[in-house]
Amino acid sequence: TVSASSNANPAALFTFTWNTGQVDAGVTTSTLSNLTAGVYTVSVTIDGTVCLAVEQSVTVTEPASPVAVSATSTDETGPGLNNGTATANPSGGTPPYTYAWSNGETTQEITGLAPNDYTVTVTDANGCQVQTMVTINEGSCQNLTITTSATNVSCNGFSDGTASSNTTGGVGPFTYLWSNGATTENITGLVAGSYTVTVSDGTTGCTAQSTIVVSEPSVLSGGIAVNNVLCFGDNSGSLNLTVSGGTFPYTFAWSTGATTEDIVDLVAGDYSVVVTDTNGCTITVNATVTQPVKALELSGTEVDVLCNGEDTGSVDITVDGGTPPYTYAWSNGATTEDIEDVSAGNYSVIVTDANGCTISANYTITEPDNALSVNITRVDATTAQGCLNGEATATVTGG
């Protein structure tokens, strides 16, 4: 609105010419309405005179952006709690803002809300208004959840398992009840088994449940296959260990100091091994390596040839120790324990027991140096009749 007056003629009337094209004549006041932002210029002359026109400009401004509003909210945390909230978030326009909620509240944030739709009208300093709506949803127990995790028992039959719980949603405070009677959030010292926890929200009365299984390894066990010493006093024994259960991998500590699963080149004796799995569970396995009661022994008796050149000799042997049955290999090809009807000479035998252990011996059968012979000499009798004076002499050699 522009007003004009004249000091020389207080009753003067004026003509107002605007750059918008509007002209008001014979008046003292001119008004432009419903303007947008911009620069407006008016030229004023005194009616009925030739006085020069007077110009005046005015700038109409507007806020940098229109007033706007968004709203955020939180739902009820549990059925019937009426604890929802809503907040108006204005922008643009010309602060400060005023608020008018559909429930009569006039603050930017309203609390203690029951499930419903809420409308807010925001008015800026220039009276510009904008409106939005927000919905508060009914509280549900579905947003209370509990998850569980477990640490398994380390060794079969132990009680060092654990179970942990994690609660999300709800309001709290929370209480816990486990199927084993525990009332803490996490539990320890557990044997293998299934455990269920129920969490209760002290504010909403909501509950949630979760089950976890604590497992354990199978029983750690071991067995030894024994290969005994074959021949008395040697080191041909071995022990082959088989381990099952527990948690692989395993380590081995033998009474000999060996750390391999199996051990070889053993003499007769008692042996033990401590097996440890990756969780530190241990077992001890014992075994005994045996050997024949005594070493393989061989003795023999020769029977010499009676008469030079004959085959009446024999060798009678006795075998003891080792592991029966025995086999025999004579130098003359015989495979019997004893040999007989043999001529004079040297004979050897190798005796082998059931384990392949051997012993040998040599025997000599003799005979008379010469064959038995006889030589007869005679002396004839005298010629005298009736005299018995002849003789014969036998000379025996050899044999």
From TrEMBL:
InterPro entries from the xrefs? SprB_repeat
Using the UniProt annotation, give all residue ranges assigned to the region (Disordered).
67-96
Ranges of Polar residues composition bias in the record: 70-92
Pfam families with a match to the protein in the record? SprB (PF13573)
Record's protein name = SprB repeat-containing protein
What organism does the UniProt record list as the source? Dokdonia pacifica
